Amino acid sequence: MRVLGIETSCDETGVALYDSERGLLGHALHSQVKTHAAYGGVVPEIASRDHVRKLLPLVQLCLQQAELERGDIDAVAYTAGPGLIGALLVGASTGRSLALALGVPALAVHHMEGHVLAPMLEDEAPDFPFVALLVSGGHSMLVEVRALGRYELLGETLDDAAGEAFDKTAKLLGLGYPGGPALAKKALEGDPDRFSFPRPMVNRPGLDMSFSGLKTHTRNLYREHAGTPNVEAHIAAGFQQAIVDTLAIKCRRAMQQTRAQQLVIAGGVGANQELRQRLRADGERYGWGVAYPRLAFCTDNGAMIAYAGAQRLLAGEHTELSIDARARWPLDQLAPPIAPA
Ligand code: KG4
Ligand code: ZN
Question: Are residues 141 and 277 both part of a single domain?
């Protein structure tokens, strides 16, 4: 069963072909980073227009890579939400229409389900059940994943997402967009202990998170020490350490609470090397497995959508002849796949 996956929920156009027997056959990505950099963040209208321009050529490229023809596609999976509605509509309309034209089923995939399942594309794939730390530009949550479509929210951010905190802090420090990778790079030159940073919410019970206080603390610190040697690098290093620490403490709590054996890290912030190292070390220390996708599949991509779509298709699901796009769509509203009556 070969599934074409289409991702257009934000600022990357991602396309992939996944074969349920042979694995990933090809994937192609166009990042809009350069397009949005001049504006310091994603401009939704520009994102939608760029997806319109790039999507079909990328589908063609992906087919060529995989040495396949259009007729070899058995289903089309597209990201239906959550995300920027205009951007989602491009992938949803194109994906659903392609499926109609090819006479194959379409699958409307939840973007975060794609992120949760992305580590399954790796050789060391986790088994259900596991706990997932989902940290992206729009979301920060801990989820207990019991099976495909069975997700229980354990905790989430009460304000900014972890990626959003990285992006805003990078902007404050003049490091540009996208902030996460830029801040992580700057942090390499700094001393994380030069300034002290709070570890938000760790003294309170529960698994919710909050990053806006950390953001305010960082802004005040920068104002106070502006112009001192290497201040941006020290702040970047201390800020990153505070986020990594906070996320690690919450993960440990989630693992103890659920008695899960495996932790999965997914979403764009999962590309952060400090976070990966820390959670890997904690896993070894406390005795649980840690899985994450390769770097390219932490951030948005078509492969995770093709994979999630393939799993739902194999379980008998596909969508009606309608185009499904939702800006908001809580992950815990998803259900296990159901075959149409
Ligand atoms: O999952 P993703 O590609 O898109 C969303 O669904 O939001 O995540 C993007 C987020 C951005 O906030 C970006 O700054 C952050 O992931 N990010 C990172 C790193 N790479 C990407 N944050 C910290 N360190 C990184 N290396
Ligand atoms: Zn994402």
Answer: yes
CATH number at residue 60: 3.30.420.40
The pTM score is: 0.96
Number of domains in the chain: 2
Secondary structure letter of residue 74 according to DSSP: -
Tokens of 102: 């090819």
| 10, 135, 136: residue to mutate for ligand 1 pocket, most atoms within 8 A of CB | 136
Query: CA 68, CA 11: separation in Å to the nearest integer?
Result: 27
Is residue 341, in this structure, part of any structural domain at all? Answer: no
For the chain, what's the residue count?
341
Residue with CA at minimum distance from ligand 1 atom 7: 137
Which of 116, 133, 166 is the best mutation target for the ligand 1 pocket, counting ligand atoms within 8 Å of the beta carbon and taking the most? 166
Q: Domain limits at 188?
A: 127-292
Residues 208 and 322 in one domain: no
94 in any annotated domain: yes
Q: What is the pLDDT of residues 13-56, one digit of tens each?
A: 999 999 999 999 999 999 999 999 999 889 999 999 999 999 99
Cα of 166 vs centre of ligand 1, distance in Å, is 8
CA dist 151 and 6 (Å) reads 23
